[in-house]
Amino acid sequence: MLLSEQAYQKIDRELAKFPADQRQSAIMAALAIAQEEKGWLPTDIIEDVAKYIGVPPIAVQEVATFYNMFDVAPVGTHKIAVCTNLPCALRDGERAGDYLKRKLGVDYRETTADGRFTLIEGECMGACGDSPVVIVNNKHMCVRMTEQKLDALIDTLKGESA
């Protein structure tokens, strides 16, 4: 077993929500639990989750690679997803992304040399009217992100990872 006992207990709670013949329904929750603990989802963790749930590893791999909230490669301490879908792109989403690229010195799907930040393009975050929108570490949504607000966000995150 590659995860902590607490992680498997959390997965067990997710599995209990579904009938025994629908264990695959817990894949997303199990991956989120594993990623929270490990920081990303290497192949051995994906295979371990599949074995634990009792589904083929390819079923878990497909979910892990389809949704951009799951990381199948190492990421920085802080993953910043910028919505660049059309509504956000038209309302400065692309400008916010370009600003972060310059500020952090990375392109999308890259991590800063110090390992603090990974920048990605995110899919629709459901807040088109509040664009530009970013989500930090799949949990914290930030809206109407001006350059000043992006600067403040980066400064805050730098303080957290110092």
Written overview of the protein:
It is a single chain. The chain is α+β, with helices and mostly antiparallel strands. It folds into 2 domains: 5-66, Arc Repressor Mutant, subunit A; 78-159, Glutaredoxin (3-Layer(aba) Sandwich). It is 46% helix and 12% strand. It contains 7 helices and 5 strands. Helix 2 crosses helix 3 (43-53). The longest helix has 14 residues, at 147-160. The model has no long low-confidence stretch (mean pLDDT 94). It comes from Bordetella genomosp. 13. GO terms for molecular function: 2 iron, 2 sulfur cluster binding; metal ion binding; NADH dehydrogenase activity. It holds the Pfam family 2Fe-2S_thioredx. It catalyses: a quinone + NADH + 5 H(+)(in) = a quinol + NAD(+) + 4 H(+)(out).
